[in-house]
Amino acid sequence: MSDELRGERVTLRPLREDDLPQLVELGRAPEIARWWPDIDEPYLRRKLERGTAFAIEEAGEIVGLAQWRENDAPDFRHAGIDLFLAPERHGRGLGRDAVRTLARWLVDERGHHRITIDPALANERAIRCYEAVGFRRVGVLRRYWHGPDGQWHDGLLLDLLADELD
Predict the structure, then answer these.
(1) Cβ 138 vs Cβ 121: under 8 Å
(2) Which of 59, 58, 65, 81 lies closest to 24, judged by CA?
């Protein structure tokens, strides 16, 4: 994986083994677990082994996780991202900075022309963040994810083309 990625206020750095306990703890916060019920050590270890996740830091402190995936099929090549931030860091522009920084790296360094993200339709805070970076709504993914409440919930597919990234 890459070296550190520097945004305006956050740094994204490759996930390390010693990050896992802190990220598991962050994932237990109700504001995160509502949308990400599977943040446990096996899940994070898979991300670590695959090299597809960054710890998000602000001023040297871990404040979240950003992950990415790639579709390398030549006719469908694109990347997808997702992230979470510690609840006490919400509403401060860190999410926008992390999303923009990761998207810029995927475009500039990994050669992607399109980035997707698929939050829960009810996750209005996340959707506002992604739209502020330039993501556009593509459509509703009906009964897209199985929530911790045992019910199926709708998702929202958004995408961002490389030339739309500021």
Answers:
(1) no
(2) 65
DSSP state of 34: T
> Into how many domains does the chain fold?
1
Per residue in 36-67, pLDDT tens? Answer: 988 999 999 999 999 999 999 999 999 999 99
Closest by Cα among 120, 111, 88, 98 to 53: 98
Tens of pLDDT, residues 88-124: 999 999 999 999 999 999 999 999 999 999 999 999 9
Range of the domain at 49: 5-164
* Residues 55 and 65 sit within 8 Å (Cβ to Cβ): yes
Please count the other Cβ atoms lying within 10 Å of the Cβ belonging to residue 146.
11
Q: What is the CATH number of the domain that holds 139?
A: 3.40.630.30
The pLDDT of residue 1: 53
pLDDT tens digits for range 3-31: 899 999 999 999 999 999 999 999 999 99
Does residue 164 sit in helix, strand or coil? helix
